[in-house]
Every structure is written in C-alpha cells, then in structure tokens.
User: What shape does this take?
Amino acid sequence: VIIELINTGSELMLGRVLNTHQQWLCRQLADRGYLVTRQIAVDDSATAIRQAVQDAMARADIVLVTGGLGPTSDDRTRDLIAELLGRSLREDPSVVAHIEGFFAGRKRPMPARTRVQALVPEGAQVLPNAHGTAPGLVLDLPSRRAGERPGLLILLPGPPRELRPMFTDQVVPLLSKQFPVAEPFVCHTLRTVGLGESLVEEKIADSLQRLVEAGLDIGYCARPGEVDVRLSARGGDAASTVAEAERLSRELLGDLVFGVEEEELETVVVRLLTARGQTVALAESCTGGLIAHRLTNVPGASVVLRAGLVVYSNVAKEIFLGVHAQTLAEHGAVSEAVAREMAEGARARTGADYAIAVTGIAGPGGGSVAKPVGTVWIALSTSRGTAAHHRVNPWDRETFKYVTSQQALDLLRQELSH
Amino acid sequence: VIIELINTGSELMLGRVLNTHQQWLCRQLADRGYLVTRQIAVDDSATAIRQAVQDAMARADIVLVTGGLGPTSDDRTRDLIAELLGRSLREDPSVVAHIEGFFAGRKRPMPARTRVQALVPEGAQVLPNAHGTAPGLVLDLPSRRAGERPGLLILLPGPPRELRPMFTDQVVPLLSKQFPVAEPFVCHTLRTVGLGESLVEEKIADSLQRLVEAGLDIGYCARPGEVDVRLSARGGDAASTVAEAERLSRELLGDLVFGVEEEELETVVVRLLTARGQTVALAESCTGGLIAHRLTNVPGASVVLRAGLVVYSNVAKEIFLGVHAQTLAEHGAVSEAVAREMAEGARARTGADYAIAVTGIAGPGGGSVAKPVGTVWIALSTSRGTAAHHRVNPWDRETFKYVTSQQALDLLRQELSH
Assistant: This one.
C-alpha cells in the first residue's frame, strides 16, 4: 500500500508553525504496519494544492490531506478537490445540523461563513467532527492501473484536537477494512548514551548482518549525547527477527542502552530512584539548572529530588555547599577537588542518598590552554564514597549543557542499575 | 526563485522524530524574502531519495536536501546525488584533515567509517562543518530551460546544531549572491509577552490598517507565554512601511514588547542586568530549575546570576532559604507568604540585588479545589521591598513550567526597564 501525506498551510511554508501532523500521523500509521512513502507540505494557494494532490494521486493508493477545510477564505482544499475530481458540491443536512448544534451548545450565534463547511463533494463519505465544525471527507479514487483496487483520498481538518480523534476512531478502521496490512510489521527503538553513532554501529553491525539479510532494517539516529537504534522488520518472522535483533544488540551494547521507544534518560532515572525509595541532590555549575529542569519535567520528580543548587559563583559554592575557599583557590572552580566537595556538600546538607555535581567551562569565554572550553568534572557521591569523572565536551554552549547533563544523569543511572 | 526542501530520514517517515528542519529553514528563508514552494520528506531508501530529488530538480531553482550525509550505512544521500548527477566521488583532503582534527581535539580514536564523510562529488563546493564531521555540499544544476540561470542543489547535514550555523553562515550569503531577492523585502518581528494573540491583534490591527492597504503584511505567531508580531513588506517603500508599522506597534503595545527578531526574554534580562552591573538570585520550586537553565543559556550569565536554588521540598526551602516552618505549616508551600520568604531568603543569603521566587502546582497531581493545578505565586524582591503576584497557568506540566518562567523573567525585565 502506497500512502502519501499532504499538509497544506501557508503558516507551514513561512516557518511559523511546526508540522506536528507529520510525526503524529506517520507514527500512528507505522505502529499499525503502514508506511508513509512521501510527505509533502505546500502553501494555501490553489496551484500548489492542486499540483500536490494530482502528483500524489498518480503515485499513491491512499492520499491523506490535512488542513484547508475551515470556514475562512484561505481554506481552499474542499473546493479544489471537488473541482479536481469533477464532482459538484452539495450541502449535507447532517453537517449543517452538527454545525448548528455546535454553536447552540456554546450559546453563540452561528457565523454565516461556517455553513460553507457543510458542502460535500458528490459521493464523498462524511467523517463527523466530534471536536469542531469541519467534517473530514473520504473520496474513492479511480484505480491507477487496470485491475488494481481503487484508492482513497482522505481530507482531514487542520486542528490537532479535531484531526487526531477523527483519525484514530474513523480513518484507522476504514484503512484496516479496505487496505488490511498484508504482512506484520514490527518496529522497536533502543536508546543509547555514551558512544557516537559510528561506534554504536561498529559494535552491532557485524553481528546483526545475518538478520539484515533475513529482512531486518536498522536505523541510527544521533542526537546530542545519545544515539537511537531502530530495529524493524516485516513479514511472518518480523516479531522474532526484531526480538532476536534486540537481544543481540542489548548483549553487545550492554549498559549503553538506557531505554526504549520514547523514554528519556531523566524518566529512567526518576523511575529507578522511585523504585528504590531513594533521593538525589544536584550541585550544578556549568549546566546551570538543566539537570534539575530535566528531572522536574518528569511527573513525580518532587519525591526523589531533594534539592538542586545552581552555584555558578565561588561564593555560592562556599555558602550553599560548604566548598572550601582554599580548595577553590588551589585547584580552581573547574577541578576534580571542587567537583568532589560540591557533591559531598550537596549530599551532606540535603540528606539525599545520591548527589551529582558538575563544574566546567561552557564557553564561549573562560577557557585556557590547561582547561579549554568544554572541560568538565562530574562527581557522584553515594553512601559508599565519591567518584569524579573528567569529560571534554567542546560544543556550543547549549549543546555543551545538554551533553554534560546526559553524562551526569547517565552516571547516576549506571549507579542505580547495579 | 522556486525553492524546494527535501528532508530525508526513515525516522521522519516512521514518525519517530519531529521535522524541526522544515520550520527552521522555511522561517530563515521567509525572513529574507525567499519562499519555499514545496517541502517533501522521504525515507532513507535509494528509490525514495532519488525520485524526490529528481522531481524537485525538474521544478525548482534551488533544491535543499537535509540528512543522509553521516557516516552510517543508512546515510545514502551523498552517493545517490553523485550517481544522479553523473559525478564521481573523490576524497577531499581538507575534509579528512577536519575529521581527524575533530577526533584529536576530543582525544578519541577516529572511527574508520567516519572517513566516508570526506567523499565529495566532483565539482561540488564544500561547506565546512564547524560543529560536526559531515560537510555540507553545493552542486550547480543545469538550467531547467534554455537561457535560464543554472540552479543549485544544496546538501546539509541532519543534526540541527550542525545544519543551523552552516545555513546561516554559508548558505545564506551564497543565496544572496547567486539568487538576490528581486525587490527589497523587509521583515521585522516584535516579540511580546503578557497578552494572548487576539488581544495583541486588537491593540494594533485598526491603527495599522492604513499601512496594510499600502502593502504591509502582518503575521501573528502565538507561542507559550509569548506572541510574535511579524511586520513585512516588499518593494521600494518596504523599509519605511515596516519602520512606520514598528513605530506605531511599539507605541500601542508599550511594555509588552520585550525584544525583536530572535531575541529571547532571558537574553534581554541578562543584558539589562549586565548594563546595570547588578545581580539576581533565583528560588525555584515548580519551575524546577528552568529559569536558571534559561538564564545560563546566555553567554555572560555567570556574571549576573548569583545562585539558583531549586527547592521542591519544604525542608530544602527551610535549609537553603530560611523559610519558616510555621509559614509553611500555616499557609502551605504554594502561598504568597512562602513566595515572599523564598525571595527574601534568596536575596539575603546571596547578596544579589534582585531575587525571584516561584512556587506553584505543576501537576498532573497535587491540585485541590482551593489551589488547582496551575496555581502559581511569583515574588520579586528588591532593595525597595518584595512584591508577590498570583497567576493561574492550567497547562500541561512542561508548558506550565515554561509559561511560569516567562512570567517570572518578565517581572524582572519590567523592574529593570524602569
């Protein structure tokens, strides 16, 4: 089944909004074994929409179009599609009733223009909109080649809270019925931290080669401080192929794998701490509060995070963590000795089971020959002692902060996993 | 000038990542007077990439392709483009040297596979990658029609922190030179905080109507805790039209305007503090370190940020800020009294000129009838006293944190602007 997705909207082409439909729809389809072959975004102009839909219909069995079904003058999709397929528009009484009910329920007058949303191309199936006024529309397409099954053109409203339930509740059942997935599809992502993309591949590629020949697809996606390994396969053996690939990858990557699918490192850390009934304190210099921010993005973090101290200045390190002025003077703020005293001070003052301390040079200024921009010391203090680690992360300021926060959270994760 | 953008990556088509390149590149181009006519995303397969690039080359003057230049086996763009244009690949010594230097600087061995990134199609211009190993590539395309100028095919690496500076520093000057915008285009964005999108529009729309009739284009872009007003015009009068629109908008919006173009609220706050030679301390409960994180994203923040205390627990509020146990018991952690004591404690203990404190209920749990999820108290303490402000931000956890951090930073900005 060839599926193409067309997102319409001038705000997309002007870069004013992020196209979240693409990720959401592609993921919904992929998880059900369908693959979107091509996604296209065009502006609201008649020429652009017409051309994009025509091109897609020539290639695909299913064409999904989002946006342009609303009541305003830049909502042109409905008219254009009717014209393109040579179908006249008629007013659908059930849609008129729905729009009237929608405004009546909100005790608001129904603007005259909204009635245009009840116009439906001849022969189209209406997908009622439970969360708005513009219905979705499904149109049969002529077969692209003789003997092939006819295709589908599916128009969906732009607002995510209208599109998403309509897709899940109405479009998915339609696809399953008219285009059942011929063979099973299984996709699984392992998330790793600690090695670059090519080194991750080096570790697993040879051993997985046999499975690749049997149909396994491997994808690598590098993000700052992290590499995702995506394992997928189709066919009767898909589940066992992906399971075997996961088993082998986990064996070869070991501790580098911190989670699966959408799971973030901070989520894993909060989960591990919660399961153990333990707590952490943070002493952040160069990461400037990012580690605390990431942990507190996870619901339930308040139970495991005792406190986070953002101590840029030497004075703050002394006042809040009890770092010795002499240590700062002798070793400098970015040093193993100061990282250790920060972690130990944070742990002692908060009574947390663990404390992480980071001190480093984020740049762009502040570097020297001995301690270049990117230099970091990370210390982890536990009931069994304190360990300090040296890292060099010579990135731009924000990437530096993020990569350093990954390394710090990962040290704690490793500690909690044993 | 017809520009098409192709984003490659199976992770896009499987819905595993959000396509942020589209928004970012479209916006960068739009702000400079170029419009992307069509954006296409395809997976990493040779067929899909080849077909998409061929189609785009037939239609566009400039084809931008992102992704697929890395070192792993699913990075196929370089090879495919060379094949498609009938150019052989040669190893570029300057790129090899750059990759070697990249790993040497990090004191890490250079993985053998990374060398593939030094392969450059014959005649291609290399765009050095200041933040990674894969260079960008620019190739001349044959004219689509006789007499027309030749086009450009521009390949950019996938990671945003590599792509973005490469685009701004190298691609933009290239486009300005080879495809200058025919008529002057002026685009200016005012950034506001404190009012919703329709209220911002209400404040300025009528007064700008005369300029709209003369060719001014106004765009509104709502983000969490912020509304951008984009003023643009084309033609000989563009500069004066936009300047007049800006003057009027600033007059009508007053203090709501905190910055222009890409400027963030935290940048403005650090600049104002730096100019005054003053400092700030933070006491964050519900924002969990986000305010500290945002301020420390700004180079030079270390001079103005005395300390940030992330004090989720009552105990931490007592230990680090001297909040009274009795105040916590009588009023609860989310209360005006506690916000005031947090701010005053942070200011007193750090000796900062200003202290901001936030305490609230981020959710999803922890709300009550009297204090629902989204309730926030923000206090600002200065040498002239402490003021506390009540807000209700009933959003999801991450949006709640962000909107609250905007409100807190904006209170300080307003204080510093007078």
Observations:
- The radius of gyration of chain B is 26 Å.
